[in-house]
Amino acid sequence: MALFDVSFLRGLGFGLVQGTTIGEDFAFVISFASKANRIVSFGEPVYKYVLRSSSVSHKPSRDACLSILDSFDVIRANVGEASEEISNILEWLAILHVAFWGSKRIARNYCTDEDDKHKLFAWMHSRYPKWHSNFLS
Fold first, then answer.
1. In the chain, how many H helices and how many E strands?
2. Where in 19-97 does DSSP place strands (E)?
3. Is the CB of residue 66 less than 8 Å from the CB of residue 23?
4. What is the Cα–Cα distance from 68 to 4, expressed in whole angstroms?
5. Domain contains 11
6. How far out from the chain centre does Cα 40 lie?
7. What pLDDT, on a 0 to 100 scale, did the predictor assign at position 55?
8. What is the dihedral of CA 7, 9, 15, 16, to 10 degrees?
9. Are the C-beta atoms of 35 and 12 separated by less than 8 Å?
């Protein structure tokens, strides 16, 4: 739903996130948007994801379920030191995509796999130790 001039983006040091199955487009857009001086919207959200029944995220492999962690690590590396406001927003996005959607995806596809759910929540605690008190939640 977006068009980008790849040579322009590469000139800025951006490229598509490679090696992840879930969250690769999200990681790119959030990383790119975090570097913008301003963002202009023409009545549409800056980033919107659509749930498609044919999407790989509906029946992912076990490893793919955990690839959202890699996508978020890319975002954190690309954003670097951030203001408190941006940090709170990134934490809130992690709550949604890692803790909620990630654990829901694992539960739906692999029932009660405690090891994988533990990996998701261990990642949350290590990257965002105060995530339970995020004021956006």
1. 6, 0
2. none
3. no
4. 23
5. yes
6. 21
7. 66
8. -100
9. yes
How far out from the chain centre does Cα 5 lie?
22
In 3D space, the residue among 83, 100, 84, 107 whose CA is nearest the CA of residue 137 turns out to be 100
Q: How many domains is the chain built from?
A: 1
- Rg of the chain in Å (alpha carbons): 15
Domain that holds residue 113: 6-133
- The answer to whether residue 1 sits within a structural domain is no
Residues of the chain scoring pLDDT < 50: none
Cα three-residue angle 137-102-70, rounded to 5 degrees: 105
Tokens of 17: 């996130």
Rounded distance, CA 76 to CA 80, Å? Answer: 6
User: Does residue 37 belong to any structural domain of this protein?
Assistant: yes
Q: What is the pLDDT of residues 2-28, one digit of tens each?
A: 666 778 777 877 777 777 878 888 888
User: What gap in Å lies between CA 92 and CA 131, rounded to an integer?
Assistant: 8
